[in-house]
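Ticket reopened. Same input as before:
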Amino acid sequence: MSLIELSATQLLAELEARRITSVELTQACLAQIERHDGRVGAFLRVDAQGALQQAERIDQRRRNGEPVGRLGGLPVAVKDLLCSRGELTTCASRMLENFRPPYDATVVARLKAADAVLLGRTNMDEFAMGGSTENSAFQKTRNPWDLERIPGGSSGGAAACLAASMVPLSIGTDTGGSIRQPAALCGVTGLKPTYGRVSRYGLVAFASSLDQVGPLARTAEDAALALEVLAGHDPLDSTSVDRPVPNYHQTVRRPLEGLRLGLVREHFGPGLDGEVEQAVREAVRVYESLGAKVKQVSLPHSKYGVAAYYIIAPSEASSNLARYDGVHYGHRTDERALADELAAERQALGPGREDEVDSALVRMYRRSRSEGFGPEVKRRIMLGTYALSAGYYDAYYLKALKVRRLIRQDFDRALAEVDVIAGPVTAAPAFKIGEKSDDPLAMYLVDLYTVSANLAGIGGIALVCGYSSGGLPIGLQLQAAPFEEERLLRAAHMFQQATDWHLRRPKLP
Amino acid sequence: MSTPYEIVIGLEVHVQLRTQTKLFCGCSTLFGAPPNTQTCPICTGMPGTLPVMNRLAFELALRTAVALHCEVAEFTKWDRKQYYYPDLPKGYQISQFDLPFSADGYLRISDAKGRIEPKKVGIIRAHLEEDAGKSVHDEQAGQADSRIDLNRAGTPLLEIVSMPDMRSPAEAKAYLAELKLLLTYLDVSDCNMQEGSLRVDANVNLHITTESGKVVATPIVEIKNMNSFRSVERALAYEAERQYEAWRETGQELGEVPKQTRGWDDAANVTRAQRHKEESSDYRYFPDPDLAPVQVDPETVERVRSALGELPADWRHRLEVTYTLTPYDSDVLVNQGRRFVDYFVQLAELTGDGKLASNWMQQDVLREMNERGIDIVQFPIPPDGLAELLEKVKCGAVDTTRGREVLLTMLETGKTASEAMESMGIHALDDSTLIELCRELVAANPKLVADVKSGKLQAAGAFVGQAKKKNPNVNPARVREICLELIQQM
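Engineering reply: fixed in the latest deploy. New output:
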């Protein structure tokens, strides 16, 4: 096997044994990117020089017998939503095309402290809003299994670069399924941790009460390794939880004895693709063969999940994105053109009616925001602004919060009966680029099986459990009680020990 | 009251809390630094940054709320108040909306001079919020540049909203003075209005009794931009008259027009209508998901309450009882602030004479402080130094008038009372010297002697005057006593 096909865990072992160097590995990744990313479009920017320098530094330290960090010399890709000191962090938006934060996101700082080689920044839906990465202001990302299809989103680049063997580990964010859904559609493993498990500091906020950083990897074992580096309390994030971080990478190999697996009645209703259902049910039989006891559970309010999500997430987004107004942050419109435009409008209206025209400040806000944001971001800002407006707040936002609480209660009840809930990640495999572009609602329903975990604040993992007749990956989702990432990872690893779906690689032209 | 209306006033006071650092980040809150030097990614709202609550700010706010007799909520949360303005970098202000940390308190106001009747002013709520930055409009040479200084952005503010319980500009001023005094006793704010540490907005309208005896309310007006307590008083007085005139012209009553905001123009002595803020009515408040709600257990409230110490009202009472001061005297002392009272108590204890200590502090110490533009902490003579002088006055070694001169010498030279008196040649005369002096005076003034003998005892005062001319160190009371004795023996 070539270097790029090995898992992160295997590669670290090779690096530690000094059978390979980080420079060799980094060069192999860069070569694979060079060869294929022109078609896949997973990366917005690749920092070949910086990566090789870092790789060289780590190799040097290893040669000198100095200690290196947990990810010493391992290339990692980072979603372009996580701030990196002095480097562009665009959120795939024209708005932040030139934004260079003067600070590291806590997760980026942790990756740096762990001596990872930061290879580049992956593409995404603008401000993480979307499920296909088609909403990136800069480029499309294609699914390595079928270049006509979307890789999922919003962490589409993060999943695609893994599937295309360009990098052994990648970091994404998940607000309504943005790690799990692209992981499933690209045939890799993606973990959304419990809300509060990983710091959000430096994650450019989409919906603060739902956003969570997590790893995408080829195996559960690799995801465990990454989570161990990412997780932990951060004094800079009041919502990060102060509780010990287990040795995920060590415990992931221990199979779960007497696993109680829950199947959610509501997950297997109309709308679920036959091949997906078959693959998920087959995966459940694999667990049974490993000694798991399967039980039916119910999440009666899950059918309201998407509706509640599309009130809460846009409401928070409308507030979080207010700062991109052209004054302090974000694209600012051409002010000379603006002044001319206003003068012309005032003249056209005639004397005494000047007040009907925007003030220069208001027009600057309007034009800057109109020009800087893409259509999906604008749609969500409008949805959220509406939901929070006086007279609508109770009917929309407050109601959605109540639904959210009920969804959490559903999970609490179900997860008292079973250890892990198993089900599909998406209703169907990856769709074609452009297929749902004209139907925002159909696009929103892509999140059907994933949003509930964000609303409830629990962790979920997606892993490939089969392929469609068209050769597209199908995902299995496992969900567990808050802070039971260890259990999720062990359950996923059990499955990957018994099957080899996760070892398949797409044939890139 | 000669006017046919009652003025109804409620006040909103913003107090900057005395913290070293801002409400949600570690930046300094020091006033007067060059623009944008006290900022960081958090208070400038950079993408991806998150707020973390300053515990001390919450503690200071809690102390204030308890002192205002507010109910402290066991559960309180943070909300985002959303509006667009260039000095608000996040596009929202972190504040508290429907669950403020405290509510339903009161503040007692009174006036020792009797200008207002004592009353209880209700406090609707007190909540914490972050300050915005400052816009600086530079319109020199036709260049309409606006600049933003974010040093102040994120500074902790306590907003204290009163009930509309005040019925005159004087009451409003008394409320503000008492509130400010309380805040300085609590040591939660420096209350400096010039530096913006204390800002006042007023809500005011009139209850007018019409000729038919019906009472109508005029529309409520919010007055902003009042930069001193004096301007609050004047603005309210002006606004009352303006509203009365406006009502007579238009007949507009409460509810018929939207609430108006007017700015006080101190130079012109008028309030002026301010432009309507666009869509200012809908702030789209919602709970800030970046901050955890704050739980306050009853033990914490009790701990804060028991650590409050004596507040102005307690001190006034104690000074009256312990040092037998009049309510007026205790009011003057207490209103000078906590340190001034501390000084007084030490002086009164050292001299054992509260009234004497009070007189000297109100007249001499205060005058010197004002003349020198210093506060009591900077006053060069410590309480024991002043006590030494007061002892001399008490025992008659020096009279009050000469004592004042001694005080001046002490202040100018840094000498102790004894040293100052010695340098001024003041020393107590022994009785034999005094008697000798008085004999001479009696012998030289037969006319005065006759007057005294005929019962005009006040004529004895003239002997005192003459004695002082001969020797400034004489004890006036003793001179009078000796002269009277000598005349009686004649």
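The CA atoms of residues 29 and 166 of chain A lie 5 Å apart. The longest strand of chain A covers residues 459-467. Please confirm and we'll close it.
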